[in-house]
Design goal:
Layout: H1 3-43, H2 47-56, H3 62-80, H4 84-102, H5 117-132
Helix pairs in contact: 1-3, 1-5, 2-3, 3-4, 4-5
């Protein structure tokens, strides 16, 4: 084996050994973002305020409760690495719903009322996570 081949093999081994940790970093970051977003609905906007907002944009009020449950529960599950693929896929419609709400505000999320760029990117990141799985640092490999 040549020196170049040994160097390439060593680089590939190092990259492969970091991959589960990179996947876990994405999973945990998505989990923290999702949990924080759900808790913001509870503690900042309040549950009645969130229900009122959902109703003001034409959604039934009960969807606010389901969204809070999805975000808080899904965020915790992602952080712990529990059923990562399924949880990631289940959260995609929540983010696409948010994108739909912001669609009329333009692309950039810094626009008044928020644009659709951030929720669409978040939905894509969840799809990527679903494809990658849990990575390292899970509560239990059995439920990953």
């Amino acid at each position: 084996m040549t020196t170049q081949a040994i160097t390439q093999a060593r680089s590939q081994t190092q990259a492969t050994s970091l991959q589960p940790h990179a996947i876990a970093l994405l999973r945990i970051a998505l989990g923290v973002m999702t949990l924080a977003h759900g808790l913001m609905k509870v503690f900042v906007f309040t549950i009645p305020g969130t229900v009122g907002y959902f109703e003001s944009i034409g959604f039934p009020g009960f969807l606010a409760y389901l969204t809070i449950l999805a975000e808080v529960g899904g965020g915790l599950a992602l952080i712990l690495g529990i059923y990562t693929r399924w949880i990631s896929l289940a959260l995609v419609p929540v983010l696409l719903g948010a994108a739909w709400v912001h669609l009329g505000n333009g692309w950039v999320f810094s626009n008044e009322g928020g644009g659709w760029e951030f929720p669409v990117f978040w939905a894509i990141a969840l799809l990527v996570q679903a494809g990658l799985g849990s990575g390292s640092l899970t509560l239990s490999r059995r439920f990953a």
